[in-house]
Amino acid sequence: MDVSPETVRGYKKEMPEPDRYMGRSPVWRRRVILDWIAARPAAGWNGQRPGRRRPAPQTLSG
């Protein structure tokens, strides 16, 4: 994944513990980051990440 150091610093408090360090730089396995992204609260006005569809609302009949 190609992510700038500035981006990582912005999420530093939210990110999982690094798998290891290369010098002073934290390093994560790809799967750890993908799982973290999937578990994060969605951004946006409707609480959904872009490209995800919310299921149709259930209607009450009767």
Automatic annotation (TrEMBL):
Region named Disordered: 1-22, 43-62
Note the superkingdom of the native organism.
Bacteria
Which residue ranges have biased composition labelled Basic and acidic residues? Answer: 9-22
Q: What is this protein called?
A: MarR family transcriptional regulator
